[in-house]
Design goal:
It is a single chain. A hairpin with a 2-residue loop joins β1 and β2. The chain is built from three helices and six strands, in the order αββββαββα. The chain is α+β, with helices and mostly antiparallel strands. The longest helix has 15 residues. A six-stranded antiparallel sheet has the order 1-2-3-4-6-5. Helices cover about 30% and strands about 30% of the residues. The chain has one domain: 2-Layer Sandwich (Yope Regulator, Chain: A).
C-alpha cells in the first residue's frame, strides 16, 4: 500500500530540525524513528503514532482517532489519526510533538 507523500512532506517539515530522526519503511508505509525508537508513521493517508500505553489510551477519547490494529489485534501504545484529525499543519504538528515527547523518554537503540 503506498503512503501519502504529501503527508510525508508535512511531517518532514515538523521534524526537519530534530537531531536523531531517521525514516524506515515499515507497516506497509513509512515510519519516523528517533534514535531507533518509532515516533510516528504513515499508513496510506493515516497518521500512526506511538504514544505509550497511557498516552494512547487518553488520545483515543479525541476525535478522528482509533486503535492501531494493523495485525488485527490492537496495540495499546499506538493509534491511528485519520485524515480529518490532521487537516491543518497545527493539528499535525501537535500530534507529532506528542509522539516525539514519548519517544524522548525511551533509551536510544
Amino acid at each position: 500500500m503506498p503512503y501519502d507523500e504529501h503527508l510525508e512532506e508535512r511531517i518532514d517539515r515538523v521534524l526537519k530540525r530534530r537531531r536523531g530522526i531517521a525514516t524506515k519503511k515499515m507497516f506497509g508505509g513509512l515510519c519516523y524513528l528517533l534514535h531507533g525508537n518509532m515516533v510516528c508513521g504513515i499508513v496510506g493517508e493515516t497518521l500512526m503514532l506511538r504514544l505509550g500505553n497511557e498516552g494512547a489510551e487518553a488520545a483515543l477519547a479525541e476525535p478522528h482517532t482509533r486503535p492501531m490494529d494493523f495485525t488485527g489485534r490492537p496495540l495499546r501504545s499506538m493509534l491511528y489519526v485519520d485524515p480529518g484529525g490532521i487537516e491543518s499543519d497545527a493539528e499535525l504538528e501537535a500530534w507529532v510533538e506528542r509522539a516525539l515527547a514519548f519517544a524522548q523518554t525511551l533509551p536510544p537503540k
